Amino acid sequence: MYINLKETEYDNYIYRIISYERLIEMFETRKNTLVKPKLWEDTFENFVLKSKLKFLDGSVITLDTHERLYGQCWTISNASDAMWRIYSHDKKSIRIRTTVGKLVSSLSIANANGAMKEACIGKVEYKSEAQIMALAKKAFTRNGQMTFGSLFRTLLVKRKAFEHEKEVRLIQLDWGNELPKNDIFSYEIDPHELITQIMIDPRTSYQDFEIMKDNIRKKTGYEGDIKRSLLYRLPETVTLEIEQIFSNLNSQAPEGDASV
Predict the structure, then answer these.
(1) Contact by Cβ (8 Å): 66, 49
(2) Which residues contact 240 (CB under 8 A, 6 or more apart)?
(3) DSSP label of 119
(4) Can you list the pairs that 52-56 forms with residues at least 24 positions away whose Cβ atoms lie under 8 Å?
(5) Is 132 domain-assigned?
(6) Whole-angstrom Cα distance, residue 111 to residue 118?
(7) pTM of whole model > 0.70?
(8) Three-state DSSP class for 88?
């Protein structure tokens, strides 16, 4: 299922910053891992599904739906100073790249042999707190039910303070009879097929980059592009022809002025 994404965007690149150790683990285990949104830092995450529902007869129920969802955050931003600084504390983290279609397909394929599971990928919308509260009230039908679409949409809205993240989220719903007890969900992938590029933190020195690139090749066998971000590269030297400028300015200077 795709939400807030046009068909023309299915082949668009999306990015995720992870640690070097996590990258190696993905190739060794051949698994991608999602977590329950309750582990995310923003207190507004998943608050809709944690809410209590009060009916006209005065009865109140608490849903367990928030314990059935898993998510993973990506971004459409290919060059963001903020994202490197937030998610690469050691200045040696890795940005992996894939496409919207590849990512959701990897999860859908994993779900093919499992009953009562649903995968979704969607672009996050950024709204004011008042708008989010209004959407929360519309998420449920009058009898307290939700469609898969409205359920997934509760995880595809954030406050405007996070707009710089430009997020795309992969979401997994386990609506089986038993409540999932594990806070993480891992599924089989082919990392060589899923990951189309590896990029290393722009603050890493060129020497360290070469060492990391060599280690990644040896430990994973990855044959795709491994690059170092050039976000902080120095601009090309620009030569300005200033003699004529100074000549013109001097010719306009009042008498007695020695310089401009």
Answers:
(1) yes
(2) none
(3) E
(4) 53/140, 53/144, 55/144
(5) yes
(6) 7
(7) yes
(8) coil
Which span out of 133-142, 194-203, 249-258 was modeled with the highest average pLDDT? 194-203
**Closest Cα partner for 123 from 78, 95, 89, 153?**
153
Residue type, position 239, single letter: T
3-state helix, strand, coil in the chain (%, to 5): 35, 25, 40
Judge contact between 94 and 19, C-beta under 8 A.
Answer: yes
Q: Using CB atoms within 10 Å of the CB of residue 127, give its burial: 0 to 12 exposed, 13 to 18 middle, 19+ buried.
A: middle
| SS3 assignment, position 55 | coil
Q: What is the DSSP string of 179-240?
A: PP--SEEEEE--HHHH--EEEE-TTS-HHHHHHHHHHHHHHH---SEEEE--TTPPPPP---
User: CA 157 to CA 92: how far, in whole Å?
Assistant: 30
97 pLDDT above the threshold of 90 = yes
Phi and psi angles of residue 246, each rounded to the nearest 5 degrees, phi first: -65, -35
In angstroms, the first-to-last Cα distance of the chain is: 66
Structural domain span for residue 246: 2-252
Domain count of the fold of the chain: 1
Establish if 140 belongs to a structural domain. Answer: yes
Report the C-alpha gap between 182 and 35 in whole angstroms: 9
- Pairwise pLDDT comparison (2 vs 259), residue with the higher score: 2
DSSP state of 9: G
**What pLDDT does residue 46 have?**
63
The identity of residue 83, as a single letter, is M
- The answer to whether residue 259 sits within a structural domain is no
C-beta atoms surrounding 133 within 10 Å: 13
- Domain-embedded: residue 35: yes
